[in-house]
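Issue: ligand-bound run for manganese (II) ion - logging full I/O for the record.

Environment: standard queue, default settings, no custom constraints.

Inputs:
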Amino acid sequence: MSTKQVQQVLAPPAPHMVGDGFRVHNFFPGGYNMSKKRMSPFFLLDYNSKIDFPARKEPRGVGVHPHRGFETVTIAYHGKVAHHDSAGNSGVIGEGDVQWMTAASGVLHKEYHEAEYSQKGGPFQMVQLWVNLPAQYKMSNPKYQSITKDGIPAYALPNEAGKVEVIAGNYQGTQGPAYTFTPIEMYNAKLKKGGAAEFNFPQSFNTGILVVEGNIKVNSTTEAPADHFILFQNEGEQITIEAEEDSVLLVLSGEPINEPIAAYGPFLMNTYDEVQQAYSDFNHGKFGYLED
Ligand code: MN
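Outputs:
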């Protein structure tokens, strides 16, 4: 097996606010003008690096907005987010939890800091991914997977190097709970200082690692500090990681969806006619109703 080489280590792009509750670095597609398919099936990565929000009575967040044609995956590292959607789903995403929302044919939702967290303030750190859906599933029924910390199995690495928590896919026989429409591997690797881990993904899979905490060395050569994203080439299979301090890594790999992309605002379709249709359906109330 040959080494999957690092293409680039990306520093966090300048942050922008999403609503007033999320201060995010957009690594792709916009942040580095990456091709919209470069990380397919992952279309977008917004990373709220760790910041302290001051206490506030009225929770910060993003008001009611639609999505169609893809899935939003929210991973909480610090802080808590409350979520409501027009399909009647709601929940709180707390530290270690993952929310996997399949917008598919369309939902309205809103995302706010959870009330108690907002009143106390404190550290906040989250990832939101947009995962594309193949054409045949873009107009399927919306669904919602609430994946709590307790429901995420961990593989214990040898030599007490740490653990790999499997959200989706399979690591060394440990199967993640998330249902995915296309092959996706998604892990939180928690390595102790001096610990090592190995990952193997097919050449064709688009692969990247976000360093959420700590500092690592990739393939014995490339340093990557906290808040950086490592983009891998589509050659070779094997990645080795050594943690230079206690580290948390979000590991992403997936089979590309080889279909045209028409992306505009909160919609991710195959053609711009479909995007127009999404706006028309939204304006005609076909996404349901959600109170602001
Ligand atoms: Mn949203």
